[in-house]
Specification:
By secondary structure, the protein is of the alpha/beta class. 41% of the residues lie in helices and 19% in strands. The protein has ten helices and nine strands. The chain is globular, with a radius of gyration of 19 Å. The relative contact order is 0.13. About 2% of the residues have low confidence.
Length: 316
């Protein structure tokens, strides 16, 4: 018998998408779900209060947590996971809608006796054009960030050094370093052993960090292509490019200070704050990157945040 699953969804200003996601879960996977736990991160609209009336007669329990402050994405996920009891947890973005076999295939795969070393699974995600998203990643090292800062990872010849696995078609099932957090199925026992997501990340890379820590314990992540789901991507941040870039850069520095040697972390800081603004500005002027003003706005904000990043990571 297939095990039941708890689904944790963090909502921030996208309650209309969230209702569609919950309906998809009910339509295709109601029999598999123990609870859907929605954690609202201080959304300014009141639409989250309308969610229960928008999704009625559910086969599972719907739990809603309304936070008055933004706990950071990882903290909100941890809060939601703590309310569940199932042996597996699916962290699902509110702009991700599962299809008929999205969850059952993943859960069944992890239940097989030969797959006890599989701690995390993800599936093939389709974008708004029904094209397969390049959603898996390598674990980044110092070379990854130096190439990114110089803008070289955008060139086809250097794609293998990039963190996202954009040089791979994502057309076959295989072991990978990391599957995207938009559809992130993990064993509860492993999640609790790792202490959940590290809430030093505000948003971005907290899922990569969790995958890496699972990897250090001997667990692997699998990307499955025999099931699919829709993922719009970008969420609410797609309209606020400066903010999105700032948080991505901030999470990069946080990751470096947590996982790299001290001198390597500071090299990442140096490259990020000196080389990368120039390379991004050139790409922005060429129309490849986010706007020039957005780029520099994000870097000014990052410089101001550096003392807080160091304090949270306990670095001098």
């Amino acid at each position: 018998m297939t095990a039941r699953v708890d689904i944790v969804i963090v909502n921030c200003h996208v309650s209309s998408q969230l209702a569609e996601t919950v309906r998809s879960i009910q339509r295709f996977h109601g029999h598999l779900i123990q609870a859907v736990i929605v954690v609202d991160s201080a959304s300014s609209d009141s639409s989250i209060a309308q969610l229960p009336s928008m999704v009625q007669s559910l086969a599972f329990e719907l739990k809603i947590i309304r936070n008055n402050t933004n706990l950071r994405f990882g903290g909100a996920c941890n809060q939601g996971a703590a309310l569940g009891k199932s042996s597996s947890i699916l962290f699902l973005n509110p702009d991700t809608r599962p299809f008929a076999t999205s969850l059952e295939i993943s859960v069944t795969y992890m239940q097989r006796p030969e797959n006890t070393s599989v701690g995390i699974t993800g599936i093939q995600l389709l974008d708004e054009n029904s094209e397969v998203s390049r959603s898996c990643s390598h674990f980044p090292d110092l070379t990854t960030w130096l190439m990114t800062s110089a803008g070289l990872s955008k060139l086809p010849i250097f794609k293998r050094f990039d963190m996202p696995m954009t040089d791979w078609s994502h057309s076959q099932t295989r072991q990978v370093d990391h599957v995207i957090g938009a559809f992130y199925l993990i064993r509860r026992s492993l999640f609790e052993r790792l202490g959940g997501f590290d809430d030093r990340f505000f948003v971005y890379l907290e899922d990569l960090d969790l995958s890496y820590r699972a990897h250090t314990l001997g667990y692997i992540s699998m990307y499955l292509t025999d099931s699919q789901a829709f993922h719009a991507g970008g969420g609410t941040s797609r309209q606020i490019k400066a903010t999105r870039l700032y948080y991505a850069l901030r999470s990069r520095l946080t990751y470096a200070f947590i996982h790299y040697k001290k001198y390597q972390a500071w090299l990442v800081v140096l490259a990020t704050l000196t080389i990368e603004p120039i390379s991004r500005s050139l790409f922005a002027l060429a129309g490849v990157e986010a706007g020039f003003v957005n780029t520099w706005s994000a870097y000014v904000r990052l410089c101001k945040a550096l003392p807080d990043i160091l304090r949270r990571c306990r670095y001098p």
